[in-house]
Amino acid sequence: MKSLFEELGGTYHQEGNYFLPDLSLPETAPVGIWGQRRRHYLTTQHRPLYNALLLGGKLNDHLIAVDTQAEAMFFQLVKQLAEQEGITEQFKAENQMEWVGRMNNIRNQVEGIIYNGFIYTSP
Asked: Residue 35: which residues within 8 A CB-CB, separation 6 or more?
C-alpha cells in the first residue's frame, strides 16, 4: 500500500509537525518595459483575457513576446524616421539641442505606433 506522500507525488520537507511540498517556479526571462505596459493594459482594460492567459500559464510568454516584438520595432522605426528626416551623427555634433528635440519627437511618434500596434490590441 502506498503512503499518502507517494500518491500525491513530488517531494516534501518537514517543518515542525507538517510536511510541506517543495514548490518552485519555473525560470522565466524578465519582462521588459513594453511587456509591463501590456500587463498593465490587460489588467485594467481586458481582465478576462489577462485571467485566461494567467490561468493557462501563458501570460509570461505573451508578455515576453510582446516586449521582444515592440522593442525590435521601436529601434527599427526610430532609425528609419531619423534617416528620413536627415538626422545624422554629424547633425548631432553640430547642433546637439536641436538633435535632442528632433529625436525626442521621433521617439514619441514611435511610442504611439507601438502602443496602438502592440500594447492596446487584443491578441
From this structure: 63, 64, 66, 67
Contact 10, 21 (CB under 8 A): yes
Predicted pLDDT at 12:
79
Total length of the chain: 123
Phi, psi angles (nearest 5°) of residue 24: -150, 145
Say which residues have a Cβ less than 8 Å from residue 106's Cβ, sequence separation at least 6: 78, 81, 82, 85, 87
Contacts of 32 (CB under 8 A, 6+ apart): 67, 68, 71
Give the pLDDT confidence of 96-120 residue by residue, as tens digits.
999 999 999 999 999 999 999 889 9
